[in-house]
Write the structure tokens for this entry.
Amino acid sequence: MPKTRAQKEEIIAQLADQFSRAKAAVFTSVSGYTMEDANALREKGREKGIELAVAKKTLLVRALEKNGFSVKKDGLDGSVLTTFGLQDEMSAAKLMADFAKNREGITLIGGILEGRMVDAASVKQLASLPSREELLAKLVGSLNAPVSGFVNVLAGNLRSLLYALNAIKDTK
């Protein structure tokens, strides 16, 4: 049953709202996408603060145009799944890259990052970056390394003194 004009306008408004709230969005061409896949993907998305939407390309293009993007309908191939990363820029790209890795017929088309359109290669590159938590852990480790090295140097003098005292004790 075809959608009425009012239903289409509501879908466009919802998509435009999601684009305005999202820090990043990823467009994925899906074929052979089952309900089992959709449910698993939505569940993973909820855990990471990601929203998913499937809409007709014409409605998607109109929602993008409402947010100031110019996209040709021809640039979007097949059925398009749009993933909105609401909490950070990398989560949507990581989720879709992991999802597409194990399945045929699912390919990244492109996305939106920092208010501009990016191609599929940029989305894949973004997905390959370490997560925010991993980067923070590396930063803490880097900041902690000089301090722990300094503590080891100071403890080395005491250790050497103890070894010398033990050697003197053993000789007597």
Observations:
- The chain has a mean pLDDT of 85.
